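Good morning,

Both structures are done.
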Amino acid sequence: MLNRLLYTLKLKKRPDMDRGRIMKAFPVRNQLITWEVDDKGEASLVVPQKDKLWVRLASKLFMLPNKRVIVLDAMGTFVWQLCDGKHTIAQIIRGIQKQHQLTRKEAETSLFTFMQQLGKRNYIGFAIPTDNKPNAPATPEPEPQKRFGFLPKRR
C-alpha cells in the first residue's frame, strides 16, 4: 500500500518492464478465490469480502453478502484456467490465437486488458522471472573509499 501511495505521488518510480520480461511472466490465481466451471463452459469465481472493520459494519448495516460471484465468458474461462503459474503470458496469447482464431495483436490487446482488470482487483498476481545470466562476468571489487573523496585513510 505504501508503494502504491508513493507511485501515485510520483515520489517513487515504477520498475521498468520491457515487453520481453512481461511476455515471460507467469500469471498466478489468488488462493482465496474459489472457482468452478459449469456445463456451459463458463467459470464462476467466488470472491470473499475483505475482512476489514468498515466492510463488516457496512455489510451488517446494509445486509450485504459475504462473498461475490463473478461469471466469466468462454474466453475469460480459457484465460483463467491457464493462470496457474505454469504458463507464460506468451503461451496464453498463442492459446487464445488458436482457440478463438484471432490475430496476434487482437489476442495481445484483449489479454492485456483482461489481465490488467484482474490484477487491479487482486484476482491474479504475476511471477516475473529474474534474468540471472550464469555466464555473466563477475563485477570487479570496488576500490576502497578514500576519506573526503581524495585523502587516503591513515592506518
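Second structure follows.
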Amino acid sequence: MIREEKKSDNKKILLLEENVLGPGRYARPSFRLREGLKPNIKYSKVYFKGNKIIGSIRYFNCRINNQNGLMLGPLIVDQSFKGNGIGRELMNQSMSSINSNSINFIILIGELNYYGQFNFEVNTNIYFAINVRQEKILFKKLLDKSNTFSGKIELY
C-alpha cells in the first residue's frame, strides 16, 4: 500500500535509509545537498507492507532561477523486497500526484539507465553549488512550455 508520507514516518524512513544505503550515504552529494532540509511530504510517499515501511520516495523543494521544482531522493526499497516493482510504483504514483501548475520540473542525482524509463534526461545547463558529475544530474520538465532551464539549482 502506498500513501503520503507523514511527519511521524521520519524515524522509520531514516532507519530504512540506514539499512539500505549504509553509513556511506552521507558522503554522497545528494545527501549533502539535502542536509538540514525537510522533505516536501505533500509529494513524498511511503510503501507499507503490514505495519512496516518497506519503501520510500522523498522530494525536496528546489528552484532554478524563478522556476519551482522538486529534487527527488532518495528512492529506497528494503533489500528483501527489491525486484518486485516497488520502486517503479513509488515513482509512478508520486510523480502523478505532482501539480505541474506550481511545480515545473523534477531533478535528481542518479543513473540514467534506471530513471530514463520515467523520462528523465541529462541536462548539462544546470548545476548544484557542490561538485556533481554532469551525467548524474537528471531532469524532467513537467510542462511542455518553451521554458529552458539553465543555472544553479537551489534547494530550500
